[in-house]
Write a structure and sequence with these properties.
51% of the residues lie in helices and 15% in strands. With 179 residues, it is of the alpha/beta class. It has one domain: P-loop containing nucleotide triphosphate hydrolases (Rossmann fold, 3-Layer(aba) Sandwich), CATH 3.40.50. Helix 3 packs parallel to helix 4 and helix 5 runs antiparallel to helix 7. The protein starts with a strand and ends in a 5-residue tail after the last helix.
């Protein structure tokens, strides 16, 4: 199975690119908010039990999809070092154990673009981060603009490419497509 791991800060277009990528590949999209919303219903946001459940849900999904023989899965994620590093290492371990091929894609855009996009009304409807001040905190204090230092990532600027162009670049880079 191929795991297309789309990461970047809030409002960079991970889900939008993921959906365009799904159209080209036929792979389902596992939006990180599915697991966030689930874990947040059971535990206080960012509590140790919340983080533990969140990671377990994601890793379980990766394992199950691989065991089911799924050809590929698209996953969206906000990387914030160093707190995300343990999870990324767990992902790599699951990939190795289950024969999953991880493909990391870092989506990027200038700060001013992110700050404009975060105000989109659709983000509130989807229960996504929609406050510019919270985005600035993620960017400045949590390192959400950083690349994962110990994996190779394809980097795409979503302010210069449409979601469809970004998806096409990903498909071309890894030789993917509908079989």
């Amino acid at each position: 199975m191929k795991l297309l791991f789309l990461y970047g800060p809030a409002a960079v277009g991970k889900l939008t690119v993921g959906r365009a990528l799904a159209e080209l590949t036929g792979y389902p999209v596992f939006d990180n908010h599915l697991s966030i919303d689930y874990a947040a219903k059971l535990f206080e946001w960012s509590s140790p039990n919340y983080v533990r459940l969140l990671r377990a849900l994601r890793l379980f999904t990766f394992r199950q999809m691989a065991e089911m023989g799924l050809e590929g899965l698209i996953f969206t994620f906000v990387y914030t070092p160093p707190s995300s590093d343990e999870f990324i290492r767990q992902v790599l371990e699951v990939c190795q154990q289950y024969g999953i091929e991880p493909m990391f894609v870092k989506l990027e855009a200038p700060r001013e673009v992110l700050l404009e996009r975060v105000k989109s009304p659709e983000r509130k409807t989807l229960k996504k981060l929609s406050r510019p001040e919270r985005l600035l905190q993620m960017l400045d204090e949590q390192g959400a603009l950083e690349a994962i230092p110990f994996v190779e990532s394809l980097r795409l600027d979503t302010s210069r490419l449409t979601p469809q162009e970004s998806a096409a670049q990903i498909v071309w880079h890894w030789g993917l497509g509908r079989q």
